[in-house]
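Bumping my old thread because nobody answered last time. Still need a sequence for this structure:
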């Protein structure tokens, strides 16, 4: 119903006066009947609607939970915090990294390795010390920059740690082994239990197309644990063979028109903690190397003192020299020039070692031992050395040196003299005609039948004049 409405008129002085009140008229009777019918209809519809079953509610879609973000462990800083406990593994690694940075290469270098219970272990320890200290100081004095890549525990309680350490400004990677003894972590010798004893053999042509020569086949045998490192090892050996053949002039891609006989078969076997060894029979070269995890290796090839490259250059030097000499089928059946070839290989070993900065402990010794003092002499000192060495000897004819056979009974007591004279002759070539003349002479050894012809081809001099110059140089003729 509408509310009552009153209108009031007047002014403020006269007051207010109600003029009229208007009441709404009463509704007709049929309005009430219509209203009653509408109400009744609404109630009925409500009851009917309420009786209809309610459809099931759709399942609620759960709000997705935020994905957990796995934050990787931060890499260790170059120098660990002084707040580290002295008994922690990280502190022990820092201690040894500092020792390597400051003292590697010194005679008193010692990491106090543990587990040396037998003489065999002591021998292994000596070799391991040599590997760790092979190239002198690792970096700036007092800078043990390193990082831990991975770590794990072996069944015998040894902890292995993959480490990067700065060395010569390049990352050097190595797996080292630690054990907790008397509450102190100590580096120990590489544990053989790290390698499970399962091996695989592959032809490395697919890994190293550089070593694609008809004169050499290259296979590798390795433990499965080192499989990820095989391309690196194959690459280092391939590089060494390529560089040696370029320097010496041995063929790589195409075989020259010579009676080459069988190609050289190279096998590189990785044997966990075995020492480096080479077995060279001429047609087959078998190289055994320790695991790259044990020797360590640089991320960047051709880095000073890289252990893998050192073993590659050293083991491939003699095969490459024989190829450059014209390693024909008649060798070793007809081994003329073999004594001079061996002298050239020793001469090359010193120069290649210096040129490519090979690790001294991973280079085979020459006839004079690892130091090779005689082969490192230069200038007048070289001549004086060989004059004194042969002063009291009746020199063998040079043609005898060329045709030398170790099984010749008439010469069996003169082997040392023949070797000294061959070495002196190569020194004479180097001093009087230059190092390139030695390489040219090497290339004639397997393709000529006499020393005079080899000398005249290599040096373009008359052989009789060459002999006179040789005898004067060695002090046997005024």
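Sorry it took so long. Here it is:
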């Amino acid at each position: 119903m509408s509310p009552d409405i009153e209108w009031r008129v007047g002014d403020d002085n006269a007051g207010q006066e109600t003029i009229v009140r208007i009441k709404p008229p009463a509704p007709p009777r049929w309005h009430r009947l219509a209203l009653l019918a509408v109400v009744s209809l609404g109630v009925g519809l409500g009851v009917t609607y309420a009786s209809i079953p309610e459809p099931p509610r759709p399942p609620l879609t759960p709000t997705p939970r935020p994905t957990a973000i796995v934050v990787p462990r931060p890499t260790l800083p170059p120098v660990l915090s002084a707040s580290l406990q002295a008994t922690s593994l990280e502190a022990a690694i820092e201690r040894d990294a500092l020792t390597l940075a400051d003292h590697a290469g010194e005679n008193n270098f010692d990491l106090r390795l543990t587990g040396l219970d037998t003489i065999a272990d002591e021998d292994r320890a000596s070799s391991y010390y040599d590997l760790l200290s092979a190239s002198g100081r690792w970096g700036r004095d007092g800078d043990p920059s390193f990082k831990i890549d991975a770590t794990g525990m072996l069944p015998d309680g040894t902890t292995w740690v993959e480490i990067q350490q700065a060395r010569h400004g390049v990352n050097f990677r190595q797996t080292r082994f630690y054990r907790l003894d008397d509450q102190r972590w100590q580096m120990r010798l590489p544990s053989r239990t790290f390698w499970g004893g399962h091996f695989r053999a592959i032809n490395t042509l697919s890994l190293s197309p550089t070593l694609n020569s008809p004169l050499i086949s290259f296979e590798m045998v390795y433990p499965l644990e080192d499989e990820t490192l095989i391309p690196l090892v194959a690459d280092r050996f391939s590089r060494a063979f390529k560089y040696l053949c370029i320097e010496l002039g041995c063929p790589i891609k195409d075989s020259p028109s010579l009676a080459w006989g069988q190609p050289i078969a190279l096998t590189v076997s990785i044997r966990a903690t075995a020492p480096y060894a080479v077995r060279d029979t001429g047609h087959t070269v078998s190289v055994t190397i320790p695991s790259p995890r044990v020797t360590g290796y640089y991320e960047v090839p051709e880095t000073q003192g890289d252990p893998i490259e050192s073993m590659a250059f050293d083991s491939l030097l003699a095969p490459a020299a024989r190829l450059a000499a014209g390693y024909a089928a008649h060798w070793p059946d007809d081994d003329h020039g073999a004594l001079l070839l061996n002298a050239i290989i020793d001469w090359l070993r010193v120069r290649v070692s210096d040129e490519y900065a090979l690790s001294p402990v991973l280079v085979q010794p020459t006839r004079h031992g690892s130091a090779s003092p005689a082969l490192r002499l230069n200038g007048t000192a070289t001549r004086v050395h060989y004059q004194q060495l042969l002063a009291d000897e009746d020199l063998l004819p040079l043609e005898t040196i060329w045709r030398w056979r170790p099984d010749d009974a008439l010469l069996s007591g003169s082997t040392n003299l023949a070797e000294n004279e061959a070495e002196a002759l190569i020194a004479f070539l180097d001093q009087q005609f230059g190092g390139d003349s030695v390489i040219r002479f090497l290339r004639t050894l397997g393709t000529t039948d006499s020393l005079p012809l080899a000398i005249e081809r290599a040096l373009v001099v008359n052989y009789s004049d060459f002999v006179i110059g040789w005898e004067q140089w060695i002090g046997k003729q005024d």
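The mean pLDDT is 74. Let me know if any region looks off to you.
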